[in-house]
Design brief:
It is built from 9 helices and no strands. It is an all-alpha fold and about 200 residues long.
Length: about 200
């Protein structure tokens, strides 16, 4: 379904841009950290769904735009987690030893900091996948996604509500959405426990 692929696009946007911001802010610190911290604070001050509505209204009513909007609204959360993990990893003994042995900043980031900091990003990415499905379905329900006959779950629920004589038109896509989100949450919880 396009809801799932759109949620994957949203998560990739959030992980890549948010992870990059967190990596730069946590590794370099100083004014770089201050600038990115203010940017993240601005993103966090706007409710996620409202930010998604604003972005999708600005760039157009399509499902891929809803995915981009949802991804932009998730950047701040990934940036915060990535920054905290990078700071923790940067202060580790093996990173300091690599500096003392003459390792370049690029080598240390790619070889030590990034692999260790990215471990906690996977459970957050899976959790964000479920949340992205809800946001994208909500945007589609309100008419901010692709028009019919697209297969967005929110759009199917919106169309089905007009035919309550056949309640399964609402229940079926709603049930699939709920099961998918709960499954993503369960996988995220399992990943957090296993790390």
């Amino acid at each position: 379904a396009s809801s799932v692929s759109s949620a994957l696009v949203a998560v990739v946007i959030g992980v890549v841009i948010g992870g990059l911001i967190g990596l730069l802010a946590g590794f370099f610190g100083g004014w770089v950290d201050v600038v990115f911290a203010r940017f993240v604070d601005v993103l966090l001050s706007i409710p996620k769904f409202l930010l998604a509505v604003i972005v999708v209204t600005a760039i157009g009513f399509e499902t891929i735009n809803a995915a981009i909007a949802t991804g932009i609204s998730a950047i701040a959360f990934f940036a915060r987690v990535a920054r905290a993990e990078v700071i923790k990893t940067r202060q580790a003994t093996f990173v300091e030893a690599s500096f003392l042995l003459g390792g370049s900043r690029g080598f240390i980031v790619l070889r030590h900091v990034l692999p260790n900091a990215s471990r906690s990003m996977l459970p957050l990415a899976v959790l964000q996948f479920g949340e992205s499905i809800l946001v994208i379905a909500s945007l589609a329900f309100l008419g901010y996604g692709d028009p019919p006959p697209s297969s967005d779950w929110g759009l199917l629920i919106s169309i089905g509500k007009d035919y309550l004589k056949w309640p399964w038109l609402v229940y079926a896509p709603a049930f699939v959405t709920i099961v998918t989100v709960f499954s993503a949450n369960g996988i995220s919880r399992w990943l957090r426990k296993s790390h």
